[in-house]
Write a structure and sequence with these properties.
This protein has 147 residues and is an alpha/beta fold.
Length: 147
Amino acid sequence: MNKKSFFTVLVVFISLFFSVSCEKKDSHSQNEIFEIRERMFMGQVNDVYKNRNSFLGRTIRYEGLFTKNELFSAVFRYGPGCCGDDGKVGFEVRWEPDHLMQDPAEDSWVEVTGILKEYEYSSLKYLYLEIISLVELNKRGAVFVRQ
């Protein structure tokens, strides 16, 4: 093998090595459930919003208060806001269009499991969970969270 051929093979090998070794691996499986825990509730919810592309299509599970108005349903917890503990932390939730389940009562404590999806309204993108399961729980967790 002459010098030019050896150099060409070497360059190709090094290029392949770096393209394989530097390939970014997703540390989360799409089938893995991302559990939002009480202790770091705000931080984990913020992580989902900040890194939405890494979480879209993933299954998320957490507990919170159920609320519904004429525009949307949500499962949330209260957190710091502009006037004390008036902020709401969580996600909008939606049933599949042909669901047969009845919504829980307002302010019920629930565990929601759903697939994170996105929709656009007035040129803005919003996240929501398409509900897989929504279960009312008897025992409430922390309604107000700080972390």
